[in-house]
Amino acid sequence: MRRRLLLVSNSTLYGGGYLQHCQEQIATFFGLHIKRILFIPYALHDQDSYATTVTEKFQSLGYEVDSIHKALNPVEAVRKAEAIFIGGGNTFRLLKALYEKNLVSEIRKRVLQDGVPFMGSSAGTNVATISIHTTNDMPIVMPPTLGAIGLVPFNINPHYLDHDSSSRHMGESREQRLTQYHEEPNTPSVLALREGSMLLVEENKATLLGSTRARLFARGKPATEYEPGADLSFLLSGESWL
Amino acid sequence: MRRRLLLVSNSTLYGGGYLQHCQEQIATFFGLHIKRILFIPYALHDQDSYATTVTEKFQSLGYEVDSIHKALNPVEAVRKAEAIFIGGGNTFRLLKALYEKNLVSEIRKRVLQDGVPFMGSSAGTNVATISIHTTNDMPIVMPPTLGAIGLVPFNINPHYLDHDSSSRHMGESREQRLTQYHEEPNTPSVLALREGSMLLVEENKATLLGSTRARLFARGKPATEYEPGADLSFLLSGESWL
Ligand SMILES: [Ca+2]
Ligand SMILES: [Ca+2]
């Protein structure tokens, strides 16, 4: 397993520019040897404009970007990619496009077998996990299944939000929604990444990075908090899922 | 079409008790001749406790409640129902249970053909519409389709929340999410019901009730606001969907 993943909660942190809060971690993650990154913009409707934003940001960090929506053969683009970045937007739309274009198993193979570095942000992080059952997005379209690329054997909830006790809104809190997920049988753990946090996975080691804590929800157990720097490798065990 | 519907945004309004903010409208809607209401609690995990809450509230308004989860034959319970109430919780879990128990077409028939009064709240309102594509809930389980009971030919977004410009959270606003829905082809209008509002449908007349305005999103058009009392019957036209 040559897996290398950078799974970011959010693309933009309050007060900052696109991917600004994690630019150091991005540069460290892709390093000196990667020259070109394959960008997957399917989570947003306007893919040209999305690709422009992403290209500008990655060029400022020293990387060229190829957006897969310009490729004649997307599967071939994944087969040739040095590195992959899937951006945020609507998770259902993104996963539906990945299935329609036969990219789910191709990305999984490239990342887990060939060691192609993979970065996801927000919806791009959701689809990297075992399933999108813990996305925050609206089901505006339906993919054939909520099972996803499966680069890790657990779920992530990006943009995790603590309950605001001053709010008068009566919809479910994020914690209540994740607790409802774990009322269902055989549901995996959910790593809830607050905005500003991200998970680095290097083979079988997982480390929390960023500026905020993460909250882990496991079925039948009280939720627990982890500080940046925490070793979360235990989440990667039990990999009968591969 | 003998349709009678009361579609409520939220079960509890800030500072009030369960269904307190809409109890007058409930009493007016079910009126003097209805004695028993069939309650459908599938959106929550603890259905016994849910049925107790609902029974107490409706008894205080003069109605007896039968919870369908106690019925030996749920389809038969719908066939005999004088009136139906579907409560809130997780919309995906609710719709999956309705399909598993073969209740979707049975409820549609009872309400549209036999004129059985139907009340929904939150998730119960989502499943009453054409589809659950505009639920706010997390997809903790998957129903066979997001197509729903279809008592009206449009979508509702319950618990609609205006963007809070003081928030530092960077996840999509509700308006952005609904705009993403309308980026998809052939998507129906979405009536966004703020907490405190509800839609009354009597045959082909639809009226906004409650204490807050509603916001209407139509594909390719600017969003529009409606005050309580507004006639929204135009949303019911074009009923080729039946
Ligand atoms: Ca999103
Ligand atoms: Ca709900």
From TrEMBL, chains A, B:
It catalyses: Dipeptidase E catalyzes the hydrolysis of dipeptides Asp-|-Xaa. It does not act on peptides with N-terminal Glu, Asn or Gln, nor does it cleave isoaspartyl peptides. Keywords: Cytoplasm, Dipeptidase, Hydrolase, Protease, Serine protease. The keyword Hydrolase applies. GO terms for molecular function: dipeptidase activity; serine-type peptidase activity. Pfam families: Peptidase_S51. InterPro entries: Class_I_gatase-like, Peptidase_S51. Its EC number is 3.4.13.21. NCBIfam families: PRK05282.1. Belongs to the peptidase S51 family. Hydrolyzes dipeptides containing N-terminal aspartate residues. This is dipeptidase E. It comes from Erpetoichthys calabaricus. The lineage of its organism: Eukaryota, Metazoa, Chordata, Craniata, Vertebrata.
